[in-house]
Amino acid sequence: MKRSGAPLKETLLSAQAGDESSYRRQRFCLDMYHRALIGPVFYVLSYILVLVVSGYYERCPRFVPLPMLAFLFLWWLRYQHRPLAMSASVSAYRTWFIHQWALVLLGATLWGLIAATVPFFERKPDTAVLVSLIATIAMGTAASQVFCMHPVPSRICMLALLLPTMLVCALPMVGLLSISITLAVYSLYLLVNLQKYAEEYQAQIDLEIELINSRAELARRSMMDGLTGLQNRLSYEQVWPQAWRGAVRQREALALLVFDLDHFKAINDEYGHLVGDACLRHFAQLLQAQARRDSDFIARIGGEEFIMMLPATAVEAAQSIAEQLRLNLAATPCRLDALHINMTVSIGVGVVNCLQDTDPEMTFDRVDHACYLAKSAGRNCVVLA
How far is CA 217 from CA 22, 209, 212, 359, in A? Predict the structure, then answer.
């Protein structure tokens, strides 16, 4: 089971748009993990404060360290129960949350029992009872806020903290009924108010997801050519060097095709830029129809210049694809209303040569030069680099 202790900020920055359910699960997971680490610390501090004001450490010194050790051990268990990675399955998350809530409820129950023993032994509203009561109320309030991502277990946690003291104070032999009633009223307030915290938490998550999706959409648009819908030059400049280095490292074939539409300026001059734009979109559609694999990469890198990157493709296969594209374009004019615009393309084809090319730019320059030679040779042809 893959686990990750990445900070919440890193998770937000690395979250993938569209994977909202996974993001919610990991956000809940990370919040529960970090917030649960705080509880045992305050249990220990509150326990020490109660001991100091009550003098219990003098009456029963043998038993005093046990709750403190239990809280410290509980903190270690929570620390070791690391949050899951976003890629974890739904069932893995479900198991993680059950385990985490068991640790949270164990701590709440232990404190609730400890806090209830103070009024049971004191039986008067002295300093020890007041300190224990204030600590318990504070912890119950915190539980209603920090664990509001799961309202039902959060309510159980609050009752585990408050109910024992409430019941003990209501006993006739203890005689602290007013405190019990006060706790009951406040507990009811927390139970009702928790829904508001849960809605606010959900609204915060919804806003984060909206921001992530907006950021992803902006990033996608910045990498896309608005006219043709293909990737743009910025995207090419990021993808090509990575693919080139991967091919060199793995000693795998990587083909690059460079296209330059023939006499495109003449089309713009004769028919106008709207027709020229339609011709660019037409050619882009032919390129997309030819690229059938998810790994194939197509981009418009200039006015009428395009590239196609074909991983795991030998030069012979790349040449065949280029020739097919050339024939398809020559046989398929761009139709715009009554106009039929005949088009041709010059193509340079090459593959990464580990012995000849020292960097990605060198491979591109070779293939681009082959495209130039195709234009010099009369256009409408394919030249190997």
Answer: 19, 12, 9, 31
Which domain does 332 fall in, by range?
A: 233-384
Please state the length of the chain: 385
Q: Same structural domain for residues 69 and 27?
A: yes
Burial state string for 270-305 with b = 16 or more CB within 10 A and e = fewer than 16: ebeeebbebbbebbbebbeebbeeeebbbbbbeebb
In whole angstroms, what is the distance from residue 115 CA to residue 176 CA? 14
pTM for this model (two decimals) = 0.64
Q: How far is it, in rounded angstroms, from Cα 279 to Cα 334?
A: 6
Active site residue 304: yes
- Do 159 and 269 fall within a single domain? no
In one-letter notation, the amino acid at residue 123 is: R
Q: What is the pLDDT of residues 6-61, one digit of tens each?
A: 444 444 444 444 478 888 899 999 999 999 999 999 999 999 999 888 887 777 77
| Distance from C-alpha of 140 to C-alpha of 10, rounded to nearest angstrom | 30
Output DSSP code: residue 358.
Answer: S
| Annotated catalytic residue within 10, 208, 304, 316 | 304
Point out which residues pair with 71 in neighbouring strands. Answer: none
Both tokens assigned to 141: 């309030």
- 257 shares its domain with 286: yes
Query: CA of 213: how far to CAs of 14, 184, 203, in Å?
Result: 12, 44, 15
Give the number of domains in the chain: 2
Looking at the fold, whether 279 and 367 belong to one and the same domain comes out as yes
